[in-house]
Structure formats: structure tokens, C-alpha cells
Amino acid sequence: MGDDLRGASLRLTAQFTALLLIILAIVGTLVYLIVSTSVTESNQRALVAATRLDSPQDAPSGTYLSLVDTRTGGQLISSDDLPEGLLDTAAIQSVAAGGEDVQEQRSVDGRDYLLLTTSATGDRSHDRFVQVALDLHESSEELGRLATALIAGGLVAAMLAFATAY
Q: What are 36-50's pLDDT values in tens digits?
């Protein structure tokens, strides 16, 4: 009889722990998706805001700006610390030729960047073209730390639940 009770207790404890893990996995996934969406939207806002800058030297850390202003001779001016190979001249030429804005993600030297190439004037007078590159390294690290914290917290909670229930 004692073995039957101990076996039933273990089964109930395992079922409770499994249920808790499932609930934590669902909540953790939802939290991760919400934060990931928020980070993506924040990156998008930073990208668009940087298109309004007047000089590549005004770009915040992790943001690289290249501009062509046809009113001042059409010279390409870029951030001093622009990583080699990040500039997408084909996208600038496409937008300069009257094409749509170009948004893409590129990897250069093992780092991911979000790029937006656009005419900086809303009326498409085609006198100023901007390419903004946003380093996604910090965003990726932030999401990685969140995932690690959610997994570690879930495992600790499961172990505590198992010990408490048993």
C-alpha cells in the first residue's frame, strides 16, 4: 500500500511539474514574441528616424549613414566608421533612378545589419538619397539574454515545483 501511494504521489508530482513546464513554455514564448516584436519595431523607428539626419557624423552609435545630395554635386558622404562592404550602391542607384525604397538585411564580417535606402524627401523630388544601416548586434544580444533568462527561470521554477509538490 505504501508503494502504491508513493507511486501515485510521484505520478501526480510529475504531471503537475509537466503541466507547469507547459504553462511556463507558453508564457515564455509569448513574452519572447512580444519583446521581439517590440525590438523589431524599435529598430524600424530608429532606421526611419536616421533618414532625417543631415550629416553622417550625427548618426548615433551602431547606425551608419550614407547620403547623396544632388543639390551639392551628388557626392556620396558616409559615416567615417562605415564597415567595409556594407554600402549597397545598387540600392542607392535604384532609388535614385526613381525606384521604390529598398529595405534589406545584410551580414558583413559576421554582424547583421538592417538597411534602408530611400529618397529623403517625401515628395520624391529626387534631390537627396539616404542609406541607413543599423547594427542588429545589440538587439540580438538582448533577445538572447531574454531567452536565457526565460529558460533558466523556467527550469528553476520546475525544479522548485517538483520539490514542493513531492
A: 999 999 999 999 999
